[in-house]
Amino acid sequence: MTETERLLALVEAEHAAVYAYGVLGARLDDATRKAARVAVDSHRARRDQLIAALQAGGSTPPSPLAVYEVAVSGAPQALALALRVEEGMSLRWRDLVGDTRNRTLRSLAIAGLQETAVRAAQWRKRAGITPVTVALPGTD
Amino acid sequence: MSAPVSRRRLLQAALVVPAAAACTSYDTRPARIDPDVALRADAVARERLLIARYDAAVPTPAVASIRAEHEQHLAALGARLPSASPAPSGPAAPAVPVAALVSAERAAAAEHVAAALQASPALAAVLASLAASEASHPVALS
Lower CB density within 10 Å: C or N end of chain A? Predict the structure, then answer.
């Protein structure tokens, strides 16, 4: 994939992440919901940086869909979805690291990969999943 | 890639070569050096140092699991642990506290990031994963 295709895919994924946190946040207890709010703010900020990078390169960023297929019936499913969102974003950020020689974009992608790996660890910990971390975030 | 070459050693080699070459009529243009070689060697050294710190920590399930991840990091860099060296004699050193493990992880993460910005895209992707893994380890230690 080209750098621009990676950026477009990342914006689409961040739109979906923001939506997913909106749905799953409602299923969490107060303390956990606070962590979800911090996470969604971070996803919005990264999405806006990605949109700015695309626009600077003359590309049109994709708009969010009205609805995403997200079903969350309770707190355990909400935690599982939050973990899936972060792991999915890690994959996309790491792909961008390997597909760009642009220093600014690479720096952004590394920061994105680190943040999503840290949040994935936090969600695993809250869900009681061990080990809490993985050796190579952003790989299958 | 068994013995890591330190950056200092590489610099010394670079200083020696032009002086020796100056005495001959050979081509004195410097050989092209792949920056990934030194970046990878430095990352291997960081991972080995981290493993040594975990070996000196109080063993817990989290410590064991993170130590195993650092061994996977070595493998991802194409390296492994050197064969066991003789245990140091003398009184046992006090165990490395968890707070020191956390600082060591954060420092290694920052160095992996700096290296990833200079590396080829393929090595950068590996170093970025290592940086992300080290950044997440304090979550497991706290």
Answer: C
Q: Which residues of B46-70 are buried (b: 16+ CB within 10 A; e: fewer)?
A: bbbebbebbeebeeeebbebbbebb
Residue numbers in B near A135 (CB within 8 A): 68-69, 72-73, 76, 133
Q: B121–A118: do the CB atoms touch at under 8 Å?
A: no
Both tokens assigned to A42: 């971070």
B131 touches chain A (CB under 8 A): yes
B34, two tokens: 């792949």
From first to last of its 142 residues, chain B has per-residue pLDDT tens of 444 556 555 555 555 545 444 445 566 777 788 999 999 999 999 999 999 999 999 999 999 999 999 999 999 999 998 877 656 666 678 899 999 999 999 999 999 999 999 999 999 999 999 999 999 999 999 9
